[in-house]
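INFO worker-7 received task bundle
INFO bundle size: 2
INFO processing item 0
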Amino acid sequence: MTGRRAERRRTWAIVSLAVPAISSRKALTAGVLVAQLVAMAAGLAQPAFNARIVDAGVIAGDVDYVQRMGALMIGVVLIGLVASMAAVACGSAIAAGISADLRLAVYRRAGELSTADYHELGTASMLTRTSADTGVVGRTVFAFTSVAMSAPIVTVGAVILSLRQSVQLAPVIVVTAILLGVVVGLYVARVTPLAGRLQRAVDAVNRVLREQLTGTRILRTFRREHTASDRFGIANTELTVLARRVGALQVLLLPSVLLIANVAVVATNVIGADLIESDDLTIGGLTAFSGYLMQIVSGVSLFVALAAVLPRAEASAIRLREVLDEDVPDPGPTDIPDRPRGVLDVDFRSVDVRYAGAEQLTLSDVTLRCVPGGVTAVIGGTSSGKSTLLSLVPRLLDSSAGEVALGDRPIADWPLTAVRSEVAYVGQRHALIAGTVASNLRLAYDDATDDLVWKALRVTKMADTVADRGGLDAAVSQGGSNFSGGQRQRLAIARALLHRPRVMVLDDAFSAMDRSTASQVFTSVRAHLPRTTFLIAAQQIHSVRTADLIAVLELGRVVDQGSHRDLLERCSVYREIADAQAPVRAR
């Protein structure tokens, strides 16, 4: 991933995002172009009107001519105003549409990323990319379509028309253009690297804030609010410093442009006065040239406005491209030829797993054949690799070496969709989303009838609780926070039951239940799915003692496997775990 990201930084990512989106909105784009052309024509006509009014009206004393030309000029101005408003409206619609499309695309791609790639990007960064970065790109597209698109035509047109008034004043235009180009170039060169750092600093603030909001109760329990405040202060200070540096450069930009413009106007008037005295230029011609000069400066100022947002927009576009261009597994078809029938077994064959950037293997040479149609348990301490091992089965992760077989067929040969049609996974974090009980459970099976949903709830001993809360339409808050930890786990297991899996992976899915409830729920689940292969992970002995096969993990290695009684006799690691839990363990 890193190499591809470095390569993308050498390209104009903003163009690759904006051009296809703009070209797909042909009607709005045509509206912008037509409206901009009308507005530009109206703007370029005004200095010429001024010149005629001065030379043929004011100097000649022809009041009627001044009134006629003045009325015509007002009409042209009104036409230009309406055209400008239309251009802004069309440009705003294009920009809003692009932002919406990008948000949807990033959201969908986030759901397709592998677990490793998603964790490498980080939740905080994904939130920033989906909200802030898409907004920055949208605003930049708006600036381009509604304003900056007209800048080249206005500038070139004003240069040509000004030279028609007086070629002798051309050096003023040349020097002004060079100075403005130098100022804008220096600004872009200084701001571009800061823009990328600024977006990463926003990520850091979001990450720290999210961690602290999630862990508020823990921080209060251990009275570590000051530590959390210090961490946020460091991240916030870095963001503030970078924002001030970018702001300081932006503050210097506009005054520099105005200074150059004002000096150019003074130079025009000084040189123009000599030309008028020598009859090489009329007063109206000088007035028109000054008007065109200001339009040239205005056109360059539009470039400056775009330059002010372009570095940050490019940084945001690169970050969006990192997500959108990330390789994702091909889900493939749900059905495959020669799909194994009957009971499906799981076999780990000399599996190694190393996370990106890690020096040590998380799993090393793991060989484990799960009991087909039975219960295989994995037990071990914290960071022993249990979750990593179980994540290989639904292909949330892929092994670095060795292979995992599903039904005697390497899991890498299975289409991803086919794997996940066979495997149900209940992780440590029970992903309940805001909605209702029914909407959460039907994530596993859209067409599940109410009877099927109630049956799954009865199996997991949640039917009475849900009925007391108003039935299947009972509200579920974000993360299921209006349910207890054990209730959330049982809802997650009920959802997995609706999937009707041939392999069920339960990663510490009973940890929040009391021992009696956990035993009842698991017994009921086993009876409901008698031909399903179960692979469970736990830290408590009572959760695994009845399993057909228990594998003991330590530091990513299987140190022994067997029944509960056999492991108590011969495995020191298992015995240590059992002895540590002796006060709560029934011998």
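INFO item 0 finished
INFO processing item 1
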Amino acid sequence: MIRPEITARRIGAEREPIVIVEGFHPDPEQLRRAAESAQFEPAHRHYPGIRATLPTDYFTRVRPVLATVLREVFGHAGAIDLIDASFSVVTAPPADLTIEQRLPHVDAVQPGRIALVHYLSREDGDGTAFFRHRTSGFETIDSARSAGYLAQLNNELNEGGMPPRAYVHDDTPLFERIAEVGARYNRAVIYRSAILHSGAIRPGAPLDADPATGRLTVTAFLSAD
């Protein structure tokens, strides 16, 4: 079995770490077969697509590499608790996106929260982009920054207009892209949930609901001590 290859990078002015893991799961084909037979349903929590339940052994099989990343890069050597995880496929047409889906976002502002995206499409494609809010200079939003940042962003949207009906994949008038991780088969990207980010869905990308041909990922949110 090929061992996962771990690469850590620090991005932006805040030098926030992100981790790219090649060969994240020991049997990605088994995952794809599970996804192709799964029952997908519309997602909640602003995800622009559909989701389905993961195999019960998913985290058992990736826990060794995940624990290494959390310990050596993010400094979490204690318990790892799963908050939410699922197969995910982006399907929402740009015309149907909410305002929140047309802006970079954070997944949580609490310390110790970690996000994971595991790419399972066979073809390289749209990955994950990370951003800086131009006015504040913020690249991460914690509980101390959250209220002021949201108030400032709302003022900018009210004065300058709503963002176009499109996925955020590059620079915008309000946000500067500071890094991007492209999708690659059985690659995972792991980062703190407080970093501003978005799925880097390019204009004209096919938004296929079939997990065999669409943008299939595992998305997961963790709490680490």
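INFO item 1 finished
INFO post-check item 1: The chain has one domain: 5-223.
INFO post-check item 1: The longest strand covers residues 80-90.
INFO worker-7 idle
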